[in-house]
User: What shape does this take?
Amino acid sequence: MNPDSRTASARRIDASGIGLAAGGKPVEQSLYEIRQTIHPRAVHGWFAAWRWTLVWATQLVFYGLAWLPWNDRQAVLFDLAQRKFYIFGLVFWPQDFIYLTALLVISALCLFLFTAVAGRLWCGYACPQTVYTEIFLWIEGRIEGDRNRRMKLDKGPLTARKFGLKAAKHLAWGAIALWTGFTFVGYFTPIRELLVEAGALSLGPWETFWTFFYGFATYGNAGWMREQVCKHMCPYARFQSAMFDRDTLVIAYDAERGEPRGSRSKGADPGALGLGSCVDCGICVQVCPTGIDIRNGLQYECIGCAACIDGCDQVMEKVGYPKGLIRYSTTRAVEEHLAPRAMLARILRPRVLIYTAILWTVIAAAVASLWLRVPLKVDVIRDRAAISREVPGGFVENVYRLQIMNTTEKDRRFRAHVEGLSPAFIEGANGFALEATSTSMVTVKVRSKLGELPAGTHKMRFVVEAEDDAHVVVSEKSVFIVR
Assistant: This one.
């Protein structure tokens, strides 16, 4: 007799935790559950349409944006080698790291806000794991057939037909994954140049590595691991409960209406049969991409895709019952039988209002900073080899190096002068020409008449401005030393 086929009553656990059969014979037990392949059933409905709308929208942006031209260059390009980051008409430098910080803060606040309002909206509709799993499942369905056919194919022996179908599926998966990796690298190396290099089989080592690495990650996560990424690898599944409360919209099963569940003929009166509205068809489980039964309550594995809502509504429509046995609702609304208007009114609670206020404050500050951003950066570095010296003509001189960065995409000339220290002036030429999106280190000599300033340190400012636009001006503090 196979030990695994014994009933639970025929086993016991001794004090050491070892599984024992009824006769005291040790029984081998696995500490890990063997993963069962999940074959989600295709579903149609309002939420499925929204999910596919987000699939199309996100992928059109991801795959298309890399090919969009802008000012004779790629519209979005993160040029790590040159340390320049192009986003449409904006050019960012490493010194603009604050904007990346603002973007991350905005993203985190959006996650907090959306989760507090309606649960895992990001996971269910726009997360790359969800999006690519949806795409890969669609390919699998087109090649291998519907859920029942896929399950039958997996259980059957390896025939030429099965090998051909599996090979075609994995080739299609691999092609999409590889193109995804190629597109990802195309945001760091101009994608048109990358395509030419790939066609000539002359990709650099880093481009090759990241194309295959990102492609392999896409292929493995969306094709093989699927729900395991959401259940075990993604930390959001674990801490989401800290962001929920009784007024968060979640996917809920109305147990009071649905129980006791049971099968019945179409059009039968559940009250006369002593049954609830749930016909125990199992459709909600079959369509779930993570394989959970939502009728057991909200679980951390639920990614909020709402496939079970679409599936259940279709069944309710067929048997002639009202829809909404599984629906978006809140814990409070289900328990207290709140009307939809009363439920939605509780969404605007203090935490949601606080998240919203902070989010819009950060967004407004970031937009205002970008709007007022001066496309010129200046760093002043004192020449430590010649702090202060007397020069012919009766002058005292300090030497500085100005690092001037032209962050615009056109050539410009700049001029510099000093303020806040009189009498002091820049000796020699004070005009500098810089090419578009370039930086230059310029040496300048600041002089003052000997005896005009007492010995010590004197504050002053370097002012650098564009000759063609008086609004492009930067002032940087420095000091003038007299010995």
